[in-house]
Amino acid sequence: MSRAKVKFVDGLRFVGEAASGHSVVMDGDPEVGGNDTAIRPSELLLVGLGGCTGMDVISILRKKRQPVTGLELSIKGEKADTHPKRYTDVEVEFTVTGKGVDEEAVKKAVELSMQRYCSVKATLEGTTKVGWSYKVVEE
Amino acid sequence: MSRAKVKFVDGLRFVGEAASGHSVVMDGDPEVGGNDTAIRPSELLLVGLGGCTGMDVISILRKKRQPVTGLELSIKGEKADTHPKRYTDVEVEFTVTGKGVDEEAVKKAVELSMQRYCSVKATLEGTTKVGWSYKVVEE
To answer: Percent of chain B scored above 90 by pLDDT?
Structure first.
């Protein structure tokens, strides 16, 4: 069982506290009455997806003793035009940096995360098509 | 199109930056090699769900001129035992505080968010059963 508490602060600002003990502030867009002091709730889905699969990929590439020096994920999410504006398509692009990183190892690490380990991807994919690509940049 | 960038920092720590310009730090559990300096990626789904529906409910109750002084959401998520350990059931409990808040208005606001407006709930519900309850506390 995972738990969180989310508490109203002011305007459309809320603070969420998770079971790990860490908190995140959220705020709404000025268009809907927020003050843009913090991230939007729906943006947390994209950021959480990136963190989840990023941790998997870094862990797997370390186990494979790959000389990774950087990992950056670019995530693009398309939403439906009509309410409730759910995410319909999400694309994750992984950029792995290092000197002599094996491209095949990166491919496998990304596939293992996306197809087997990443709980956020698995939770989103009921309604959202999640695609991915990767590139390796020689440092 | 919504965008985010998630960048590896060190250990299992990542920083995610969303299109709004705001950033969130994430870290892994020490059990899997993280240092517990920040929230877990999968916790962001529960926190994001709470923020999304919380903003809806506050906005709707304001439009209905309800004298709300507080709103707190308690969110419980069950995950599958096996990888990828997706969320299977999530329960959201809303506690609305105020003096003379109409319980019927609260019920309708919560239902409107959950059934029509909340994009995070709509994105999660493909794989996850999302339930809710509410109570009104006289201040």
So the answer is: 99
Nearest to A50 among B16, B45, B116 (CB): B16
Entry pTM: 0.98
Evaluate the omega torsion of the peptide bond into residue B84 and state whether it is cis, within 30 degrees of 0: yes
User: How near does any CA of chain B get to the CA of A136, in Å?
Assistant: 15
Q: Which of A43, A81, A121, A134 is the best residue to mutate to test the B interface, defined by the most B CB atoms within 10 Å of its own CB?
A: A43
pLDDT at B128 over 90: yes
Domains assigned to chain A: 1-39 (2.20.25), 41-138 (3.30.300.20)
Q: How crowded is residue A68: how many other Cβ atoms within 10 Å of its Cβ? A: 22
Average pLDDT of the residues in B20-48: 98
CB of B19 less than 8 A from some CB of A: yes
| Closest-approach residue (CA) in chain B for A40 | B20
Question: What gap in Å lies between CA A5 and CA A23, rounded to an integer?
Answer: 9
Location of structure tokens 């199109």: B1
In this structure, is the dihedral angle defined by the CA atoms of residues A103, A120, A81 and A7, taken in order, positive or negative? negative
* Tokens standing for residue A137: 């940049």
> Can you give the pLDDT at residue B139?
86
Comparing CB atoms, the residue among A18, A73, A126 nearest residue B127 is A126
ipTM of the predicted assembly exceeds 0.90: yes
What's the mean per-residue pLDDT of chain B?
A: 97
